[in-house]
């Protein structure tokens, strides 16, 4: 790639960052790092009516948690700052006026009421109202009015917008890195508003101007912006600027595969659609986040990378560095990617096994009051024995509680299966045997108990099942001799005797 790669993630601070936005940020990050480029964060807050307090900080916190921090943006390496569009609003008007001067845009003074009347009139005749070449000379704008009338309206402070003048009878030939060549008939395009009466630019103008001034080389964004591609190409042409290369990512679909994934889908099916927990500042409603639900950032990122992209191999598990190395924008799919809540759990289970036992133990201890007085090194030893069965840290207690407290009850089905007529007598002998063992190591326990069972010429299940039941309260858990070593001789004997008494 000959030119310096500069990509941007440009969310609006209108609420929490959706997981689809995280995927867009990730693909921009991977592309930038693959080509030794720069990942820019720009906050597109031109719509002040929808601005939500705290949303910008949430976006930054989410990117940092996902380990895909921006290189350049608000408060960080501000080479082309400011990076909030609301702080750049004074420069957009000059660009709008430049387009008017070149004949590529015009003032429009139509009121909301008059436009609504035109729409209703078209609907009554079975037509769709489009403000463009076929009717703009019949409407109230600087193309249909005299120069004197236009100046009079401007001097009087009448509300106006600036609209782009879409060409007539042209075919646009556009290119997209994901979708290939695209043809657009300009006759079907409307004259989009570029500058609003409140003195703020629309997304279209601000986006193009900022991408140009920030020297953005590649625009990688969601499929929902594909209908804007024709206008954006025309704006670059109208300004006489080189356009960046574009790539429009596929939609993230509901688990059913039909329709775009929404927060409602997550609420209904019981999974988050936001990276971090979000508390609505107006309603105090809480939306779940992947971090707070116990997911590891590496697992979330690995999962998101496969929503719309694949490496062309059978490999599914990638570190972030491996994703950077493998990522190729040409392997991004056109078709929507189905969100699979079970698959992200599969990834999380894998990354659970990769976690440091000491760090897991600290997090586990922080979650459970029962562990507050227990040595974290002991907790780490227990975690090491059971984490292969866990997907989340919150799973650890159910899998390991017997390391920290004796069972308060016995699983009914397990009790019926393990207890026979001679079980009590066998348990009594076993307790005596265990009490005689001086070297209370896993290996010595195993050799001694199994040797005793062999010498009695009885089936292993007659002893091992009741022993496990005594230690755990159920027929599950890691190796019984590891459990006995962990809880110690006296506790092991006490639990065996408790079961004997319960028979």
From TrEMBL:
GO biological process: glutamyl-tRNA aminoacylation
Superkingdom of the source species: Bacteria
GO cellular component, one term: cytosol
PROSITE patterns (UniProt xref): AA_TRNA_LIGASE_I
Catalyzed reactions per annotation: tRNA(Glu) + L-glutamate + ATP = L-glutamyl-tRNA(Glu) + AMP + diphosphate
CDD domains, per the entry: GluRS_core (cd00808)
Name of the top EC class for this enzyme: ligase
Residues annotated as domain Aminoacyl-tRNA synthetase class I anticodon-binding: 368-498
Keywords: Aminoacyl-tRNA synthetase, ATP-binding, Cytoplasm, Ligase, Nucleotide-binding, Protein biosynthesis
GO MF, one example: zinc ion binding
Binding site residues for ATP: 263
Predominant location: cytoplasm
Motif position, 'HIGH' region: 11-21
Localization annotation: Cytoplasm
Limits of the Glutamyl/glutaminyl-tRNA synthetase class Ib catalytic domain: 5-346
Short sequence motif 'KMSKS' region: positions: 260-264
EC number, as in UniProt: 6.1.1.17
Family stated for the protein in its record: Belongs to the class-I aminoacyl-tRNA synthetase family. Glutamate--tRNA ligase type 1 subfamily.
Record function comment: Catalyzes the attachment of glutamate to tRNA(Glu) in a two-step reaction: glutamate is first activated by ATP to form Glu-AMP and then transferred to the acceptor end of tRNA(Glu).
Subunit comment: Monomer.
Record's protein name: Glutamate--tRNA ligase
């Amino acid at each position: 790639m000959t030119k310096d790669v500069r990509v941007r993630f440009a969310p609006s601070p209108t609420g929490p960052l959706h997981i689809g936005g995280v995927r867009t940020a990730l693909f921009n990050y991977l592309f930038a790092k693959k080509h030794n480029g720069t990942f820019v964060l720009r906050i597109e807050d031109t719509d002040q009516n929808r601005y939500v307090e705290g949303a910008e900080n949430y976006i930054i916190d989410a990117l940092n948690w996902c380990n895909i921090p921006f290189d350049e943006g608000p408060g960080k390496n501000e080479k082309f700052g400011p990076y909030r569009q609301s702080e750049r609003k004074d420069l957009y008007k000059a660009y709008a006026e430049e387009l008017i001067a070149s004949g590529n845009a015009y003032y429009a003074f139509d009121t909301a009421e008059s436009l609504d009347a035109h729409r209703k009139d078209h609907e009554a005749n079975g037509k769709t109202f489009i403000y463009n070449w076929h009717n703009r000379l019949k409407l109230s704008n600087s193309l249909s009015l005299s120069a004197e009338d236009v100046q009079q309206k401007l001097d009087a402070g009448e509300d106006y917008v600036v609209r782009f003048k879409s060409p007539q009878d042209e075919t646009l030939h556009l290119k997209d890195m994901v979708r290939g060549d695209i043809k657009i008939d300009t006759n079907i395009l409307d004259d989009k508003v570029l500058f609003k009466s409140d003195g703020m630019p629309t997304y279209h103008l601000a986006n193009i101007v900022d991408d140009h001034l920030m020297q953005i080389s590649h625009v990688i964004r969601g499929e929902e912006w594909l209908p804007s591609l024709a206008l954006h190409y025309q704006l670059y042409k109208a300004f006489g600027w080189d356009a960046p290369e574009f790539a429009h990512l596929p939609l993230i679909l509901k688990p059913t595969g039909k329709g775009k994934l929404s927060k409602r889908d997550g609420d209904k099916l019981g999974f988050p659609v936001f990276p971090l927990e979000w508390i609505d500042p107006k309603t105090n409603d809480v939306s779940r986040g992947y971090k707070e639900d116990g997911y590891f950032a590496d697992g979330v990122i690995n999962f998101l990378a496969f929503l719309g992209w694949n490496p062309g191999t059978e490999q599914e598990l990638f570190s972030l560095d491996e994703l950077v190395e493998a990522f190729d924008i040409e392997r991004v799919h056109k078709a929507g990617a189905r969100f699979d809540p079970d698959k992200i759990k599969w990834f999380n289970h894998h990354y659970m096994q990769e976690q440091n036992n000491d760090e897991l133990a600290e997090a586990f201890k922080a979650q459970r009051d029962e562990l507050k007085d227990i040595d974290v090194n002991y907790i780490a030893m227990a975690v090491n024995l059971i984490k292969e069965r866990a997907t989340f840290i919150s799973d650890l207690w159910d899998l390991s509680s017997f390391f920290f407290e004796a069972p308060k009850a016995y699983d009914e089905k397990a009790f019926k299966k393990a207890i026979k007529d001679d079980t009590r007598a066998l348990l009594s002998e076993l307790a005596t045997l265990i009490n005689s063992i001086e070297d209370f190591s896993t290996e010595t326990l195993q050799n001694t108990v199994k040797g005793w069972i062999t010498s009695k010429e009885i089936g292993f299940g007659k002893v091992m099942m009741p022993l496990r039941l005594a230690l755990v309260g159920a027929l599950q858990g890691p190796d019984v001799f590891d459990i006995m070593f962990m809880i110690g001789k006296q506790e092991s004997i006490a639990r065996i005797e408790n079961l004997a008494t319960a028979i």
